[in-house]
Amino acid sequence: ERISVVGLGYIGLPTAAVFASRNKKVIGVDVAPHVVDTINAGGTHFVEPDLDALVHRVVKDGFFHATLTPEEADAFVVAVPTPFRDATVSQVPEPDLSYIEAVSRMIAPVLRPGNLVVLESTSPVGATEQMAAWFAEERPDLTFPQTHGEASDIRIAHCPERVLPGQVLRELVENDRVIGGMTPLCSTRAVELYRQFVKGECFVTDCRTAEMTKLTENSFRDVNIAFANELSLICDRLGIDVWELIRMANRHPRVNILQPGPGVGGHCIAVDPWFIVSAAPEQARLIRQAREVNDSKPRWVLSRVDAEIEAWTTENPGLKPTVACFGLAFKPNIDDLRESPALGIARALAEKVRDRLMVVEPHIAKLPDGLGEATLVSPQDALANADICVLLVDHDAFKFGGTPDRGRVRIVDTRGIWKA
Ligand code: SAJ
Q1: Reported ipTM exceeds the 0.90 cut
Q2: Closest ligand 1 atom number to CA of residue 225
Q3: CATH number for the domain formed by residue range(s) 2-205
């Protein structure tokens, strides 16, 4: 059996490598020449624990190669991005299916009767059926489930990815999978494919439910984080420590609140709920509100820092404070800065305090763009020299076992790890 994985990013590349490690012949397809070249040289174009060694081995052993042009295969796994388009008149960001459309039109010419196509990209409800429609447009000689049901000669299913960056290779194998075929036979074929490496259970449903399942998982987390973030605003107003509060409330057997922070980052949890809101704007009121609560958190953090700057300046007339941001990543113990609320906050502070901004981010070697005259320093340097310390990411490296020097330094702790 030959398997083609289309889109060799954070999901596609590990998936391709894992299939190849089960001695399947895998063809990876990507539009970026540098991605294809890097992989064919046995390397990876992003950092994920153990992935580099795995890709190196399967390429060397001849089970995996990458190409810019699709080739025939028995099964196709599509893992391309589904970003959203910025809010239009409706004020709701709309999903952008252009990558899925481009891939559909690109692989249609190599589809053969009996092929299976699985869409893994996180998708708005209806995207799998839409993909089938694009195939049908390009290949009128073949028959697809929406016109021929079980009698179709192509099988199509949705099987959303649900791995956590940093633990991708383990979660790919261990997590349960939700598989939604356009017909029951489509599901059966897709289950057979994933069974080759998935040790978790494969649960079968229809494709629209599978699409909605993925969006629901990330919306559940977003709503729960929004609840925690709203509590942090309420507690600030009432003079209560929100982390102590959540710890207490979570001792109830049926309460499990997540943690407040500077906002929600990454490209899944801050995006996917919009796919639900744009599909059902009148019904998805809570999901929309949660998005807005989380998106507004960085502004609130900036207002706390402003208040500290003002208080410091009143105490030290004629002087300007040095501000240190602890952390830029979108979550702890990784180097990933994409859609990071911490980075947004640091950029806003760079405009305000200019060369009086220090940034501590032990996971990167060089500051990203947009931080002006800020300097990258060690935690020790920042603690020794900053007047205001802003904790934005709960990296292990920042857990000093209490508040750093409570007497002298002013502190804004968005993660609650610096309490005495
Ligand atoms: N965050 C909080 N408080 C919390 C938990 C998270 O503020 O209590 C913030 C993080 O700091 C980060 C953001 O939320 O900015 C998202 O981080 P995350 O660790 O919750 O999730 P991701 O984006 O790395 O991965 C999620 C996962 N989905 C769920 O846990 C439901 C993962 O399983 C999905 O595969 C992934 O989205 C995806 O690709 O959709």
Answers
A1: yes
A2: 3
A3: 3.40.50.720
